[in-house]
Amino acid sequence: MPPRDANWIDGLRGVASFMVVCGHLCTAFVPWLHSPAHDPKSAPHLFQLPFFRLCVGGRSAVALFFLITGYVNSIGPIGKSRAGNTDAAFSGIARSALARSGRLVLPTMIATMFSWFLANTNAYHMTKHVDSTWIRQGWHRQEPTMWQAIKTLVRAEVETWTIGWDDYDGTQWTLHLFLEGSMLVYMTMFATVLVKPKARIFIFAMLYLYFWQLGEGLAIGALKGLNIVIGMFVAELHNHYGDSATSILPTPVPALLIVVGMFMAGYPQDAPQNARWSHMMAKFMHSITAKDADIRRYWDSIGASTVLLGIFFSRNARRVLTSPVFNFLGRVSFPVYLLHNSLIKSVLTWMVYLPSAMNPPRNEKGEQMDLQRGSTMHVFIAIAVFYYILYRMASLWVQYVDPVCAKVVNAATKWAYGEPQATHPIRNGSIEKTVLPA
């Protein structure tokens, strides 16, 4: 399959996906790094400090995913609206809204089936006995009968999109929010295609204020709404400035935006009162948000949004994100997101805890205790092997699974539109592959 054209937003998506995996590994093995210090009187570890803590934090990466969702799903309709091509804008919105569900749901269903297969072949057995709370919570039993296994699979597939929880892969809780966020973009674009750009920016501002005061409510305002709106706003900037965007601001300003954004995005997930800098951030955010709001999500959102704006105006940052490495990370970002939890609970768990499993520790009564991980070097080697397997599998997913999903979605949408099904030419003895759009 030919690679997608390199673009900076794809590279940013790849960074976000990598950060999510790092964050979950941190939660699994060194959860104390999520706080800025062990206690108010202790000196922080290197990776508990601002900026460095982004290496082991994944919450701001989730905000980046929503920002990217708002950006990529609105850039086309805004461009057509500005050009006065409203018919094409409405048609594009309608087609994208119909296809978007399939592009999200179908790969997610396959990933759930993969986790279901691992669970029901007892690949998660060791997970139940490890000393990592986060990994242990992801354990799923092997169902006693095939009928029970099929019922749990169907329930997991449905509940991922209804209640937002998948018993076989808890990290899929964000996916129904991504789908809702896409529909929020399409609805906003549909409502603003006919308005002038200044009016649309005013509408974005009103939506931002609405989601700000909503807090962490049923609509997940600070996680979904704020980021979706800023993503649409950046898409508006893209259509306004075009290729000249990277020469609008003085060179130091975009870099400063990125640095400030990274600092804000590093707001700790746990115990902000343990460090003066995070305690001051907490007090400030509590003073300007709704009662009982999850201020962590607000700092994640503001920090990630500021980073996105800095990258948008920075020629150098864009150049880095379009390099071959980041282009690869972007191409495999979605399967990495879908597969990483299943591989953590199986392959990584086996590698980290196998020595202990071969000679399980027992207490004085002879009862088996939690399995203990190997040495630090052992864990680092296991994580390195895990990353290789994860990205290798993600690459194979892009090569073989994504084209099948694309063909299914394309066939379904053509059927819905009443269009004739396209015939796929045979090239070199194989069917021509289709690349999933971003």
From TrEMBL:
The chain crosses the membrane at residues 12-31, 51-72, 104-124, 173-195, 207-235, 247-267, 334-354, 375-394. Residues 7-354 form the Acyltransferase domain. GO terms for molecular function: acyltransferase activity, transferring groups other than amino-acyl groups. It comes from the Eukaryota. The keyword Transmembrane applies. Pfam families: Acyl_transf_3 (PF01757). InterPro entries: Acyl_transf_3_dom (IPR002656), Acyltransferase_3 (IPR050879). Keywords: Membrane, Transmembrane, Transmembrane helix. PANTHER family: ACETYLTRANSFERASE, ACYLTRANSFERASE 3 DOMAIN-CONTAINING PROTEIN. This is Acyltransferase 3 domain-containing protein. It comes from Zopfia rhizophila CBS 207.26.
